[in-house]
Amino acid sequence: MTSAFISHELKAFWRSKNTGKSIAIRIVMGILILFLFGYALLLGIVLPKIIEEVSKTDPIISFCGILLVYFLFELLMRLQLQELPTLRVQPYLHLPVKRNALVTYLATTSLLSVFNLWPFLLFWPFIFQVIAPDEGAIVALAFIVSILGFSVFNNYLALYIKRKANLNGWIFLVVVIGLSLITSGDYVWHLYSLRDFSYAFFGKLIHTPAYALIPVVLALGMYYLNFVYLKQNLYLEDLNSSKKSSFKSSTDYPVLQRFGTVGDLVANEVKLIMRNKRPRSTIIMGLMFMFYGLIFYTNPKLGTSDYSAIFVGVFMTGIFIINYGQFMHSWQASHFDGLLVSRINFTDFIKAKFLLFTMVSTVAFVLTIPYVYFGWRILIIHFVMYVYNLGVNTAIMLFFANRNYKRIDLSKGASFNWEGVGATQLLVGFPLLLIPFIIYAPFRFFGVANAGLVALALIGIAGIALRQVILKGLVDDFNTKKLQIAEGFRNK
């Protein structure tokens, strides 16, 4: 059956109307991957010399210490970049095809991921150059088997997390935050050493090669867990049965219920974000940008000047507005025609976007409060830029969103995906970044920097106070552009 599935997949690819575009993209990606493989292999060949120059301990001890760290970072990268293997299951469900054959195909094709090749290119040269001559072939084989086991374990663990996250987006965020905290505990807070944990296992392979069977067992267990999960959820009704029993209302977030229809629309937007990889990446990127200030405020060359604080404040409190807002209507491209013929009031539709921006930016500002450590002025500037983002940048983003006619397919991943990106996204950066400095710079030039901050704050407050006027203008603008937007979204 595997050969039949592969044949069907190839026929579906060649018969697609976008075959030419897909081939061009695959050729470019293939060349890029070959370059990366070449660099990885080169790094693996010179790894013994690098470890010898950087580390003052035995090269094998240092090598054992970096393996666990590598697999932690690899898991984080897999969660971001590795695609789920797909197969159009529905056409086979009414045929005499065993469910085990379908599930086995889905489970085994994931091993074709390029991530499973990185460890061999990076670590096999070291094993053959250093470990095999010093410790013997049995120990070298134990390292190869254990690295293979951990790589396969990571492969299926990442897929299991992403499949569970498709039903509950919070799972993905919890896992990413957990991995970030684990690495921060070593490299930021120095509470423990991941290298010591790594050596505690891989160092034992030198004296007891049988320990290599542990990662193999873990890999087989994770494969079985994926197999069972896929088999249980192979039918669409199986995926939806648990949701039907726990259904409450269109708004599962009590804090949004007070906003009525607008709250329902925001709740649906939040669900869209959490259940799809590309919009969900905007949340993850926003969390990562909360550390952006450390790059500036801990660097003596960049310092804590007002210009740096304004720049950082715009990004940290407005990164979601920038990353998500520029594709505001494109996220609904697949059902945009349905929105146009529905009974949704588009004033509420645009108002929901404002509310979503306000909520996420408020959370972002709260997360930046610890930067008061670098001075109260830093916190004040962050608050000013938070108000400015709500009053000005939200309106700018929605204005440009009305001019983005490129669709986004939510079923595709976020990595190397340029759908929805056009000239509009390049132009929108100028007003977002330049206007605050244009307003502030003259006041700073004449020695009244505080007045410049007050001016930014007042402009932001004016934008919030005039939101109803701005909202009406955006709705009118949307009504004149909605047919063009819908036509653009239909072009796949």
Automatic annotation (TrEMBL):
It comes from the Bacteria. Keywords: Membrane, Transmembrane, Transmembrane helix. The chain crosses the membrane at residues 23-47, 59-81, 102-124, 136-158, 170-190, 210-230, 281-298, 310-331, 352-373, 379-400, 421-439, 445-466. InterPro entries: DUF5687. This is Uncharacterized protein. It holds the Pfam family DUF5687.
